[in-house]
Structure prediction request, 70 residues.
Amino acid sequence: MDVNIGIKAAIKKSGMLQKAVAERAGFTEQQFSDMLYGRKVMRVEYLPRIANAIGVDIGDLFADTGQPSA
Prediction:
């Protein structure tokens, strides 16, 4: 599964704004957007920061969203 899809789903489920997650994780809104939409590499070491910002476990970022994987 694409972790970007999982992160977007976790953000949506949390009811938070993408901008708020970015700020809490220590990214600018543009940096975070670039990572979520594949314009910049989503590094594995960023995942704990992102999960903490959303308030979920890292594993939740990989949860099945029901979308087929490529």
Q: What stands out?
A: The first helix runs from residue 3 to 14. The chain is about 50% helix and 0% strand. The radius of gyration is 11 Å. The helical segments are 3-14, 18-25, 29-36, 47-54.
